[in-house]
Design goal:
Elements: E1 2-6, H1 11-22, E2 28-33, E3 48-52, H2 58-68, E4 72-75, H3 88-109, E5 113-119, H4 142-160, E6 165-170, E7 173-174, H5 200-205, E8 210-212, E9 218-223, H6 224-236, E10 244-247, E11 250-253, H7 254-264, E12 270-272, H8 288-294, H9 302-326
Parallel strand pairs: 1-2, 1-4, 2-3, 4-5, 5-6, 6-10, 7-9, 8-12
Antiparallel strand pairs: 9-11
Helix pairs in contact: 1-6, 2-3, 3-4, 7-9
């Protein structure tokens, strides 16, 4: 089996790349990435075929499918957030044209399964106590519009063109890469002014003081390695009952995450601002479909997730340092 992961050195894509190589059943992983960050997959880089290229370039996408015998696809290449004024056409070229390019190439190649990495942003500003897959979405920003459009294209290719395809809506997820996305290098989306609180782990691990939101604020928590497990299950399950699955692990207060981080980094300067809300908060995501249909069981609680996150940072930093010494 040959799996193509677009954006395979990015945040969630890098975790899937490593998961696939550790599954014992994966013959080859091909990564297509416009701005590859090799440090994210440093421990498996020698086992990956890495192609530098843009999903928005149809010719590049077709060459990858023709050259590597792709039979499963996980499409994670996307730009986080919404573009500044004047950049919408170039933004859409990646988000929508890129998705169409990969879908069409997958159809022509007759792949066994196509996975589209969607987002809780597709739900938008729904006034719902719990987010379930049968709700009618109401996205509010271009990022959410494009994710919902991608889901619609997946459904079209599956329902009308014979492609076995599925979308996963990933909720609040933490892990290496949450703080810096490769897509920032494109200039189509400016870096955030401050790190999302789930990504402040990286600052604390590097000796910087951090401030966390109020302990009592509730949030969904999924470690990125568990998100990768969910993607792997969706890619390899023989038959899927649905074309859309929420990905979420647990609903917990931010204070539990802060406590786990303090325990793992006892010397770190970590304080709490009781007035800071949890950024990008959303209603709880129901994961019943994922658990019932695909047998998803999270492998990481907060303590284990933080510990693995810190190890990922250590490996990536060592890779960057070694590259600096060699240059």
């Amino acid at each position: 089996m040959t799996l193509l992961v677009t954006g395979g050195t990015g945040f969630l894509g890098s975790y899937l790349t490593r998961h696939a190589l550790g599954s014992g059943a994966q013959d080859r992983v091909v990564v297509l990435d416009r701005y590859p960050d090799r440090s994210r997959i440093a421990d498996v880089l020698d086992r990956v075929t890495l192609v530098e290229g843009d999903v928005g370039d149809q010719g590049v996408v077709e060459e990858v499918f023709a050259g590597y015998g792709i039979d499963r696809v996980a499409h994670f290449a996307f730009i986080l957030g919404s573009p500044p004024p004047g950049r919408m056409p170039a933004y859409i070229q990646v988000q929508c044209q890129g998705t169409a390019n990969v879908l069409e190439a997958a159809r022509v190649a007759g792949v066994r399964r196509f996975l589209f990495a969607s987002s809780v942003a597709a739900y938008g500003a729904l006034d719902a106590a719990v987010l379930t897959e049968d709700l009618v979405p109401d996205p509010q920003v271009p990022y959410g519009f494009c994710k919902l459009w991608g889901e619609a294209m997946v459904n079209h290719y599956a329902g009308s063109l014979g492609l076995d395809a599925v979308s996963l809506r990933f909720g609040s997820t933490y892990g290496l890469g949450r703080g810096w996305r490769g897509s920032y290098n494109s200039g189509l989306m400016p870096p955030p002014r401050s790190l999302h609180y789930m990504a402040r782990v990286e600052s604390a691990a590097r000796g910087q003081s951090i401030v966390m939101p109020a302990d009592t604020v509730m949030a969904d928590w999924t470690y990125a390695a568990d998100a990768a497990q969910a993607a792997w299950l969706a890619l390899t399950q023989e038959r899927l009952r649905h074309r859309l699955y929420n990905v979420s692990s647990a609903r917990l207060p931010v204070g539990q995450f802060t406590a786990a981080l303090r325990a793992a980094l006892p010397d770190a300067a970590i304080t709490v601002d009781p007035e800071e809300p949890a950024g990008n908060a959303h209603a709880p995501m129901d994961n019943t479909r994922l658990v019932t249909d695909l047998g998803f069981v999270p492998a990481f609680d907060l303590a284990a997730g933080v510990a693995d996150y810190l190890e990922r940072i250590r490996i990536a930093d060592a890779c960057v340092a070694a590259k600096g010494r060699a240059s």
